[in-house]
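@channel sequence for tomorrow's demo:
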Amino acid sequence: MATLRELKGRIGSVGSSEKITGAMKMISSAKMHKAEGAIRRLLPYRTQLENIIGNLLQAEAEFTSPLTDAREVKRAYVVVLGSDDGLCGAYNVNIFKQLIAHIDALRSELGDDKLPVTVYPVGSKMLKACRRLAIPGVDVAEETGVNSKSSDADVKEFVMRLSADFLSGLADRVDFLYMSYQSVSRQRLKVQQILPVLPANLTNAEKSVTNRSYIFEPDAGTIFRSALPLMVLSSVQEIFCENRASEQAARVMAMQSANDNAKKLLEQLSLEYNKLRQQSITNELLDILGGQVR
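structure tokens (generated this afternoon):
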């Protein structure tokens, strides 16, 4: 049975833990709102690019770009985004499980159960998890120039390397697996094919504008080939922003859960401490009364 001194020490430790988790929750919440702001700031740029491409597609011209070249997939890249820091619950575990499922689904979709796949883990926690992958034909590339906290310049350089590999034929398809941010209490696992650019993405851009007549200078094809890489870059930048927001949202929920558990434990320890203290006082009073009777 614990003594009063031991219980008092445990109450102090739990109280300190409650304060720490509360502070970490506030910090994560501030970082999450910062990531939300980055997503909102990126949206007008993305929308304007879609408008430009939509207007181009409505013009009477033929458009081609190497980034839309769909060919037989002999090697696929899967970029999986996780976190560099811990204390975010099952965030990385859930993404890693979905990565394994996506590799199986990708091979089934393409009808090749031995399709070579290169996994690019983003974030030290995800890299650590991917090192344990033991699937035949699946390689893990340790990308040192990018992480979950990378700046826009680093993300741009990363996208340029992926695009160069696609254009040179080293990769025939590039997918991104990440946690899409919905709200602080809801994040959804999402897979998005970045390269080659899907016709559906271009169709959505075309539907987002009204039919207008434009005179293009230079020609529409040149503008299209210049705007499409920017659209790919903006899509990846948005993915990185959503990943950061989702990570912090998961950490907020994890810290909230830890804080609630600390409060419950603190209440239980305080009740046990008060009972033991009351019992000790009662025993001392009985000893005093017993001595007076003798």
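heads up for whoever presents: The radius of gyration is 28 Å.
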